[in-house]
Structure formats: C-alpha cells, structure tokens
C-alpha cells in the first residue's frame, strides 16, 4: 500500500517516528508521501524524505496558512520541486469553514500552486472544504490555460465537484472518514468514482479510521481505509490494495522513476 498523505514532521510523531514507520511497514505500507503544510516547514519535510528510502514529499502551503505566505512565488515552488524527493505540489486549496486565511488570499495561493503543478508536471494535492463550486470553477478555468493533474485529497465534498474534477482527469483519495458511520454522503460520492481514479491515505495523525477512532492516527491504519473501500466497492481487500497502489504510483510517477 501507498499512504499518499502523511503529516510526519510535527509534534505528534516527534518522539517515536521510526517506530511508527516500522509498524506501518509491518502492516504492508511500502511507500509514504509526507505533506508540506507551510513553506517554512519544507526543509523539515524534505529531511524526513531524504532520510528514508520509502518516503517522498510535497512542496506547498495549506489554505489555512495562505495569509502567512503572501510573497510565495511559482518559481519558489518549482525550485523546491526540483528536489528528487518532491513528487507533488501542495497541499493547497480552499477552506472556507474556519476562515483562518481570507478567501482571496487562498485563491491567489491556489492559483500559484496550479501554475507550479502545470510547469513541473507534478500532481496537485487539493484540500477543499465548503468551497466546492469555486474550486471546480477555478480548476476548469485554469485547465483551459494548460493541463495539470488534480488530486482531490481526503475527499468529503459533493458529487458535483468530484465529477467536474474527474472530467479533468483528477484522482480522488479516501481516508479513514470513509469508515465513519456518519459519512454516508461521502460513501455515496465515492461509490460513483471509478476504481482506477481512487487512492488511499491516512492523513495521519488526524482522522483515525474505525476501529481506531479516538487514537492518534498512524500509517499502519491504512489497511482499515482499504477495508472500508473494499466494503463500499464490494471487492476483495487485497484487490483494492493492489489497484490503489498501482493508481498512486501512476499518479506520482516521479516515484517510479527513482
């Protein structure tokens, strides 16, 4: 399995990261994508990737932090992406739920990331919350300027954004949320996403899946995400693991070139 979204550089894993990784490997996770949430954390995220042969990373600014990086440039993102360990741009996007950054700041930051993804050919990791219509409009508008590869990460949005993004060639990642009893709407949307466009993630240390809810999430729990997807798609779990791993390697194709 490929855990395509792990947050490893923060305090939750500061004391036992190596043990966490060993548990994940024992559970069948063979590849990890460490996510950059703030551009001033990039070097820390990159260092983790450089020190582990099975970890790669991204370069970007989460929409919560868009206000903190008004001077971020497309060239800076592209320069970061020139490192062989960097296989994606992001996480970026729009999150209007908390309002940690002004909407316009988020939009400007998102468009910079799209430009960097277009220019580098790397996948664009997208976070969307309470901004489905605007996100779809921006993706379609930017796609007219030149193709790029969207990934709807930890998808909890509606069917309309999912289908509009799929029409642009997007992939969709599912997390432990898929296993939550309350996530009926999420399951309904994912049910209509083709299996060849779905990948797995934990988004650890957040969103531990059933039956691990309430604990710190770990990459080892990715197997429970695979089980939830297998139940939804009525497929054997081993087949789901194989398909989603192949999808992730195809999406993050810089991994297979190393």
From TrEMBL:
- Signal peptide (residue range): none
Matching InterPro entries: DNase_TatD-rel_CS, Metal_Hydrolase, TatD-like, TatD/YcfH-like
Which residues of the sequence carry a binding annotation for a divalent metal cation 1? 5, 91, 203
Under CDD domains, the record lists: TatD_DNAse
The record's PANTHER family line, in alphabetical order, gives: D-AMINOACYL-TRNA DEACYLASE (PTHR46124)
Q: What protein am I looking at? A: TatD family hydrolase
Recorded family membership: Belongs to the metallo-dependent hydrolases superfamily. TatD-type hydrolase family.
Cellular component aspect of the GO annotation: cytosol
What keywords would UniProt list here? Hydrolase, Metal-binding
Task: Write out the coiled-coil annotation as residue ranges.
Answer: none
What GO MF terms are annotated? DNA nuclease activity; hydrolase activity, acting on ester bonds; metal ion binding
Question: What SUPFAM superfamilies does the record tag this protein with?
Answer: Metallo-dependent hydrolases (SSF51556)
Cited Pfam families: TatD_DNase (PF01026)
Q: What is the species of this protein?
A: Hyphomonas jannaschiana VP2
